[in-house]
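Hi support team,

I've been running sequence recovery on a batch of backbones for a student project. Most finish fine, but this one hangs at about 90% for roughly twenty minutes before it completes. I'm not sure whether the input is malformed or the queue is just slow. I've pasted the structure tokens below so you can try to reproduce it. Let me know if you need the job ID as well.

Thanks,
M.K.
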């Protein structure tokens, strides 16, 4: 007997879409911990130019990276419309400065292509 009340299991991956320098990018939602509005950071001396500074996130100090500059797309002058995507990269929390988060998408696995060699 079929159980029609059982929820259907999503057969796909959720990703967060965001914009940098008029280009769209995505990151797997499993890596995203939080999305915050821009707030000023504390500048670090001798840090790479793409590190905007450090921020305190409820007692955790983490770097904020200007993703546009890191990808070679030019420096970002942050304003109140910019956001910081807090992501887990390996075992570290990092803030990614982006222009805007545009959507959360659910992509079916069969529509994804493998990474080229």
């Amino acid at each position: 007997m079929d159980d029609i009340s059982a929820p259907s299991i999503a057969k796909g991956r959720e990703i967060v879409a965001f914009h940098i320098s008029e280009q769209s990018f995505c990151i797997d939602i499993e890596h995203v911990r939080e999305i915050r509005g821009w707030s000023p950071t504390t500048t670090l001396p001798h840090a790479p130019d793409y590190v905007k500074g450090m921020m305190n996130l409820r007692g955790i100090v983490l770097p904020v990276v200007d993703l546009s500059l890191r990808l070679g797309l030019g420096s970002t002058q942050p304003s109140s419309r910019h956001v910081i995507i807090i992501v887990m990269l390996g075992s570290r929390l990092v803030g990614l400065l982006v222009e805007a988060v545009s959507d959360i998408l659910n992509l079916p696995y069969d529509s994804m292509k493998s990474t080229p060699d």
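--
Follow-up from support: It reproduced on our side and the slowdown came from queue contention, not your input. Confidence is low (pLDDT under 50) at residues 1-9. No action needed from you.
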